[in-house]
Inverse folding.
């Protein structure tokens, strides 16, 4: 069956207006360049509305959305339970001169839910959380250096960026020590060289970098890192901003069997409402209280009410396992569809936020063609980043996705006969 | 801060290399090529060494020491760069008997080069001259890119992150340059690669010219399809900061 190809002219028209008044047209990671919309004309640029697993672009096309707003959509867009909780709080007040009662309720819920959490501290974006965690590590240890992993993404603050990037000074990144993923020996060497000045080790639960197959932790990796951090007085920080609640509601660290000192959450905790958090162990409570860290909207009550409702819904649904299972059904189907057309599709990472790549070339060109052909027909895939499952994804959505993917694979295969499996 | 030695390399292997193009594609330049073969060595103290081989129908810019009829010496990269911008003279070390060619026809040749690289309205309006101007600009930028990536301290930092592979730069209906990255070192050749890892494609010569002159920004061009990138984008991502430096070096 062939699926109609979407037109996205209104997106382009609006984008041309945007270019006059917004740097890069669409600033940040949602811009067509940063989003790797290749070719750009295959992709919509603006969303009009959302519901469950779908968004509609401003040309009126519906897409099954596997980016989930880059993670926040975890229960389905506009989930009625979350929206009701948010609306009830909005009636009473959102951004106020004092925090609402819900601040305490949310902190209690997080402490009960996340294995290592003895306290929670709220902010807005993932980067607010990772920067705070790094500051706390420094405050608690009196040391300077931060170990991070090559290719790891922790936000956009200058310290998270690569040396030489526009606006980044050498001083901004001068205390970073960058190590390869899954390499305990490299950490041991760093300790031997800088041990007494290493404040923290920050990493995502597994290596979910862009443009590359994602890599789970090697057997014993995290346990060894934990041991070395403990032995050397280094604060172990897990950046669970992207994985959080998609592997295990008690924390991705529990999923991999280790206990960090601090964990950063953001994307999945309030189903799209703007809030992030750092949770931590008892020993770091004082550091958390002493680092001066706040913002105009950080105590707003509506996102907190949304977070309480989201976490309770995720608990009720056993959300992480549900998303892992849906992801498995979808990715198994995608792999077989690819194989039918002589293409190898490699799935990596956790199935609830899988990364996929056609391996018949090493340039991602086939992958880019595949994602473009899917998107043009209503399945929103991007070629460089992991995708996301949300709990509202239905069997029917998966079936439709596989049909469209089948057509897209056949188009890619037809155009690239020399690349196909023999 | 521009590194003068890198700038000297850009001037030789990016800008003056376009004399090759003039010899091949600019009929008016034919009159300024020497009647007898002639090789000019540019010997820059503390900088690059290059030999421009000229004959009545062809030109080649070669890196390094090659037999030369004329040797032009420069006390430093700055000295050489000042010569290129018309503010200093070289020290002729050998081949004084051919000096008349250098001060006469060769000077006219480099004037034509400048006319194409800094085109006036008349050049831009004439389709054939516009084509030459745009193609030479692209070559100057791409070959300078390589020098900056390999030599400029900031360029080298970006280049170190460029994954191995071939980036094919191409302009529809016009020319191509293949840029090869190996272990953070770049090299470039004119032409097309059968199996590039990434592509940077300009939909027209006009689009390329407008982007290089800053009239069209790359975000607009990418959205409208005037510029297209495909393939392993980390190659292009890490080349982009070097391209920004090209604009500074060739200002
Ligand atoms: C692992 C990780 N850390 C931090 C961040 C930064 O979060 P934010 O964009 O909300 O600042 C992200 C965002 O994608 C992320 O994936």
């Amino acid at each position: 069956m062939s699926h109609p190809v979407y037109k996205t002219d209104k997106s382009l028209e609006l984008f041309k207006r945007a270019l006059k008044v917004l740097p890069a047209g669409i600033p940040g990671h949602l811009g067509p360049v940063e989003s790797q919309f290749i070719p750009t004309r295959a992709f919509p640029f603006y969303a009009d509305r959302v519901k469950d697993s779908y968004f509609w672009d401003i040309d009126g096309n519906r897409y099954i959305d596997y980016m989930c707003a880059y993670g926040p959509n975890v229960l389905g867009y506009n989930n009625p339970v979350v929206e009701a909780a948010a609306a009830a709080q909005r009636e009473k007040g959102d951004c106020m001169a004092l925090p609402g009662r819900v601040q305490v309720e949310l902190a209690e819920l997080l402490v009960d839910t996340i294995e290592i959490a003895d306290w929670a501290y709220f902010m807005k974006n993932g980067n607010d959380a990772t920067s705070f965690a790094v500051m706390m590590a420094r405050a608690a240890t009196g040391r300077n250096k931060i170990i991070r992993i090559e290719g790891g993404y922790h936000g956009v603050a200058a310290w998270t960026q690569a040396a030489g990037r526009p606006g980044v000074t050498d001083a901004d990144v001068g205390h970073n020590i960058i190590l390869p993923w899954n390499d305990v020996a490299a950490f041991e060497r760093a300790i031997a060289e800088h041990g007494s000045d290493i404040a923290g080790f920050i990493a995502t639960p597994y290596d979910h970098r862009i443009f590359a197959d994602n890599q789970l932790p090697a057997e014993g990796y995290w346990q060894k890192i934990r041991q070395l951090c403990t032995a050397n007085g280094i604060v172990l920080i897990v950046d669970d901003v992207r994985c959080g609640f998609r592997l295990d509601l008690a924390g991705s660290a529990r999923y991999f069997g280790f206990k960090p000192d601090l964990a950063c959450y953001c994307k999945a905790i309030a189903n799209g409402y703007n809030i992030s958090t750092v949770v931590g162990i008892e020993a770091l409570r004082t550091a958390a209280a002493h680092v001066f860290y706040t913002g105009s909207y950080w105590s707003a009550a509506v996102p907190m009410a949304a977070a309480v409702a989201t976490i309770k819904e995720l608990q009720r649904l056993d959300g992480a396992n549900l998303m892992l299972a849906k992801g498995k059904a979808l990715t198994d189907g995608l792999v077989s569809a690819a194989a039918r057309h002589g293409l190898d599709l490699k799935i990596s990472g956790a199935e609830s936020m899988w990364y996929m790549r056609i391996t018949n070339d090493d340039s991602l060109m086939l992958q880019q063609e595949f994602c473009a052909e899917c998107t043009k027909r209503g399945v929103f895939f991007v070629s460089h980043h992991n995708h996301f499952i949300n709990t509202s994804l239905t069997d029917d959505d998966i079936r439709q996705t596989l049909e469209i993917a089948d057509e897209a694979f056949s188009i890619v295969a037809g155009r690239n006969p020399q690349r196909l499996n023999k | 801060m521009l590194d003068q030695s890198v700038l000297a390399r850009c001037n030789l292997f990016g800008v003056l290399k376009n004399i090759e193009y003039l010899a091949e594609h600019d009929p008016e330049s034919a009159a300024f090529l020497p009647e007898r073969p002639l090789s000019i060595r540019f010997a820059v103290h503390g900088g690059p060494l290059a030999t421009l081989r000229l004959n009545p129908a062809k030109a080649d810019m070669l890196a390094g020491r090659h037999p030369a009829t004329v040797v032009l010496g420069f006390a430093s990269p700055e000295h050489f760069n000042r010569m290129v911008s018309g503010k200093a003279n070289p020290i002729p070390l050998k081949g004084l008997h051919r000096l008349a060619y250098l001060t006469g026809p060769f000077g006219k040749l480099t004037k034509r080069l400048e006319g194409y690289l800094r085109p006036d309205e008349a050049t831009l309006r004439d389709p054939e001259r516009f084509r030459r101007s745009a193609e030479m600009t692209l070559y100057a930028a791409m070959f300078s890119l390589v020098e900056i990536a390999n030599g400029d301290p900031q360029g080298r930092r970006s280049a170190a992150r460029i994954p191995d592979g071939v980036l094919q730069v191409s302009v529809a209906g016009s020319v191509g340059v293949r840029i090869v990255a190996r272990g953070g070192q770049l090299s470039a050749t004119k032409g097309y690669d059968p199996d590039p890892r990434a592509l940077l494609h300009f939909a027209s010569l006009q689009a390329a010219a407008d982007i290089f002159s800053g009239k069209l920004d790359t975000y607009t061009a990418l959205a409208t399809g005037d510029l297209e990138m495909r393939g392993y984008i980390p190659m292009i991502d890490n080349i982009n900061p070097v391209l920004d430096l090209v604009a500074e070096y060739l200002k």
Summary: Chain B has a mean pLDDT of 94. Chain B touches chain A at residues 154, 157-158, 161, 165, 196-198, 217-220, 222-225, 228-234, 241, 244 (CB under 8 Å).
